[in-house]
Amino acid sequence: xxxxxxxxxxxxxxxxxxxxxxxxxxxxxxxxxxxxxxxxxxxxxxxxxxxxxxxxxxxxxxxxxxxxxxxxxxxxxxxxxxxxxxxxxxxxxxxxxxxxxxxxxxxxxxxxxxxxxxxxxxxxxxxxxxxxxxxxxxxxxxxxxxxxxxxxxxxxxxxxxxxxxxxxxxxxxxxxxxxxxxxxxxxxxxxxxxxxxxxxxxxxxxxxxxxxxxxxxxxxxxxxxxxxxxxxxxxxxxxxxxxxxxxxxxxxxxxxxxxxxxxxxxxxxxxxxxxxxxxxxxxxxxxxxxxxxxxxxxxxxxxxxxxxxxxxxxxxxxxxxxx
Length: 323
Hints:
Blueprint: H1 2-7, E1 17-19, E2 28-33, E3 36-45, H2 52-69, E4 73-83, H3 90-106, E5 110-118, E6 123-132, E7 148-151, H4 157-165, H5 171-181, H6 186-194, E8 199-202, H7 207-219, E9 222-226, H8 234-240, H9 246-255, E10 259-261, H10 267-274, E11 282-286, H11 291-300, E12 306-312, E13 319-322
Parallel strand pairs: 4-5, 9-13, 10-13
Antiparallel strand pairs: 1-2, 2-3, 3-6, 4-6, 7-11, 7-12, 8-11, 9-12
Helix pairs in contact: 2-3, 4-5, 4-8, 7-9, 8-10
């Protein structure tokens, strides 16, 4: 629906607007000098965990990720809060804000304020401003034929959060997904810039295949993904054998026509690849001759990443998934 709405709006043009709304990228980028561009982004969502502190951490990491996906460094952040004051105690709201502030500080940014409204359902997130050298901006339109596709976090947080909220798994089961969601994409972004990645997007609400398609289409290329190499949580794959949440179904209905699955890719994996992620990893298009060194550098710094596929000239704007 958002695609339809945006097409009805006039295109914004400015000589210093480096990244706008035309490619469904992760954030806007505006050049302010020869060596500095501003990155601006905003994101918020309803709670996906019961722990208010963890909710704040996840929401902050998710919002900061858009700056990292552009190759940038966050510098300031603003809280965006919607809470039903009659039903949520001030102590709970304070814990959400504390969790977010911790992640902003970990990112080396400064929390400078925010805005709150009365709402019937809790919502929280951040508006984040970052900086990047204009030559280092990474977009979802930069993937080149022959690049490797690298993913920096496992898939399955949506399925696991959904199962937790429905009482199918407990808090201990969910913890591995929470640990992933609170992890910043800072190190992956730093290494991506150092290794001169060609393109990037972060994997969030549209899932691996949804955001991958945006990247392939913006770049005018095709993607080929090896299902067996895609990192995922084992429990999420088990959940996917018997569950297909609403967000997952919507992702598949909206984008499934542009994905070609090999016959031997099982149904649970197909679901997992459309699973909406919160604070997911970066999907990076990087020259194949430096991919191994990039992965080794991330491993040395304690960050998991996997080579999951390649950029191809065939089937432009589509994704082929092989077993």
